[in-house]
Structure formats: C-alpha cells, structure tokens
Amino acid sequence: MENQKSAKTISIIALIISIIALIISLMICCGKCPCSWFAQDEEPQQVAQVDQNVATEPAEPQQEQVVIEETEPEPQRAAIDLTEKKKRAQVFVDLGLPSGTLWRDINEEAGLMTYEDAVATYGKQLPSKKQYTELLEKCTWKKLKNGGYKVVGPNGNYIVFPYDGFINCTGEQRGVNEFGDYWTSSAKEGTEEAWRIVFSDKKEPSIILHNRCYARGIRIIKK
User: Fold this and answer.
1) CA 75: distance to chain centroid?
2) How far apart are CA 100 and CA 98, in angstroms?
3) Torsions phi, psi of 33, nearest 5?
4) Which residues are CB-contacts of 98 (< 8 A; sequence separation ≥ 6)?
5) How far apart, in whole angstroms, are the C-alpha atoms of residue 85 and residue 189?
6) Of 16, 27, 90, 119, which residue is the least packed, with the fewest Cβ within 10 Å?
7) What are the tens digits of pLDDT across the range 129-172?
8) H/E segment holding residue 83
9) Distance (Å, rounded) from C-alpha 163 to C-alpha 148?
10) What SS3 class is residue 211?
11) Per-residue pLDDT tens for 176-191?
12) Which residue from 131, 144, 127 is spatially nearest to 200, judged by alpha carbons?
C-alpha cells in the first residue's frame, strides 16, 4: 500500500516537473527569461524614468510676441478748387508808383489769352499802355539768370515777369522760356492791332502794336 502511494507521488512530481519544463521551453522560445516571473515589473520604472527625463529637460522658450503698432494714415491733401485758388493767389504789390497802381505778383492762371478775351475777362484790371509805360519809366528792370525780368519799384518792392511766350493766330505756341509778351488794354482804333509789351534776354522791354488774334500773357492791376 505504501509502495502504491510513493509511486503515485513520484508520478505527480514527474508530471509537475514536465509541466514546468514545458513552460520553461515555451518561455525560452518566446525570448523571455523564466526568472522574470519572480522579478518586479520593470516596465513602469522605465516609463517613470522616461517621464522623469522629459520633466528634467529645459522647457522650450516661448516665442516673443511681436506687436505691430498701427501708424496713422498720412492726411490726404484736399483738392483745391481753381476758383478758390485764384482768390487766395490774388496778391497785389505796391511798387511805390506815382499813380498808386498796385500790380499783381503773378500771371493769371488762365494762361495766354487773345486781346478780346483778355479785355472781356478782366476789363479795367487789364493794364493800359499808359500804366505799362509808367512801369517802364519809374521802375528798374533786371534780367534774371533763369529767364524773365525782375521789376523793382521806387520803394524797393518788386514783381517778376516770366518768359511765357505767345500763341500765334494759327494756334502755335512759341517763345516759352525765351521772351515775355503781355497785352495792354489799349487798342489802335480802326485796326486789328493792340498795344503789347515785349522783352527778352536780347531785347529790352518795349511797347509796340501787334495783331489782336495772338494769345499773350496777362498781368492784372488794382487801384
């Protein structure tokens, strides 16, 4: 009876050993050491180590925020109406003439005009032959290097006449930057001619008759 129990125990032990051997064989085939059964799971430690490494790395510096300041738009230049411009530009200079005539400091913005158009537009403000003669006799006329004449009155004040040339009866413009040519309000009765004052670098100022259909410079006066 005892022999039977011993034989049975040995069989059980042999079976257990066989099972253990089979498990070890399977573990070896899977590449895992059997001793790992009794070791603590290291995978959480590795994860923890990774987390620790991540935590110890220096934080990436934050990119500085660039603030673009808005600039105020450049103020727009207001459009100037031509009529308003003429009103503001009407400056008359006292040259100290005996007649007390005041001469405008610039030519009219309308540009070159025929005799009839000039008289119709400016009337008594268009200087007469007599008034231009006074300007010649009482003032000093000085040629300018950049073209034109500077007319200095008895009191030291002055005006400038540029070389604007003329437009002939066929519509051709000539003499720009070469000579000045200005209408007076005086015409020769019974003819198609009127008095004008003309001057250049080669020709001293003089008042002569010429065809009214020509367009010439306009300088107005005030008394």
Assistant:
1) 11
2) 5
3) -70, 135
4) 134, 138
5) 36
6) 16
7) 999 999 999 999 999 998 999 999 999 999 999 999 999 999 99
8) helix 82-89
9) 5
10) strand
11) 999 999 999 999 999 9
12) 144
